[in-house]
Specification:
The chain contains three helices and 14 strands. By secondary structure, it is of the alpha+beta class.
Length: 208
């Protein structure tokens, strides 16, 4: 007999779950679901401005792939990729994820991303700057971009193996500066390009 899957929705925000329960759960459409330290986080689908920044970032990385054939295996968005952190009972859906050629599959037979990016939403600063910083490092991610529209900056965290354990080396880019990515040598996208079309004007229409 088939086992009924646990159904989760916005009313389950804050619910305690195991990784297996979260993996098998059936999600009510229209919301974003992540597991953080064994606690379910349910958030609204991001607004148009957030979506536009993610799209601009996707285009910038896609341009790099076209200019450097063979440098990227695939690029995914939140619904395409989930980063599992079993030791922290967490499962995260980065806004953007990049899988590099030659990446070996994990224990589930899937090739994990080497680079992930999060676009900071209003109220999500501590989640993106603090919680995910630790979780992505623990998961083995090699590079983590924190794209912050309110501060107009991109923080690039590069994984470094040290005697005391793995840690992040941090660089912050602003304005017309080119975002320097150790994993994407030759990347020419600038910080300013990420905000194009993402700012609403006084009439509520988005402008470039």
């Amino acid at each position: 007999m088939a086992t009924l899957r646990t159904q989760i929705g916005p009313a389950d925000h804050g619910r305690k779950m195991t990784l297996d329960e979260f993996r098998e759960a059936e999600e009510q459409p229209g919301y974003c679901y992540e597991l953080a330290g064994g606690v379910l986080e349910v958030t609204e689908v991001p607004n148009d401005s957030h979506w536009q920044v993610v799209d601009n970032l996707h285009e910038a990385i896609s341009t790099h792939r076209r200019q450097h054939p063979g440098s990227i295996l695939r690029i995914g968005r939140g619904s395409d990729c989930r980063v599992w952190v079993p030791g922290m009972i967490s499962g995260r859906n980065p806004d953007l994820a990049v899988v590099l050629p030659g990446t070996p599959p994990d224990d589930r037979g899937r090739r994990p991303p080497s680079l992930v990016a999060e676009v900071v939403s209003e109220g999500g600063e501590s989640r993106d700057y603090q919680a995910k910083r630790v979780e992505y490092l623990t998961s083995g991610v090699r590079e983590y971009w924190i794209v912050d529209p309110s501060r107009r900056q991109v923080t690039v965290l590069e994984r470094q193996e040290r005697a005391a354990g793995a840690g992040w080396a941090e660089q912050v880019f602003r304005g017309d500066e080119v975002i320097v990515s150790p994993l994407l040598p030759g990347f020419v996208g600038t910080v300013a390009q990420l905000w194009l079309g993402a700012e609403p004007d006084a009439n509520g229409d988005e402008r470039g």
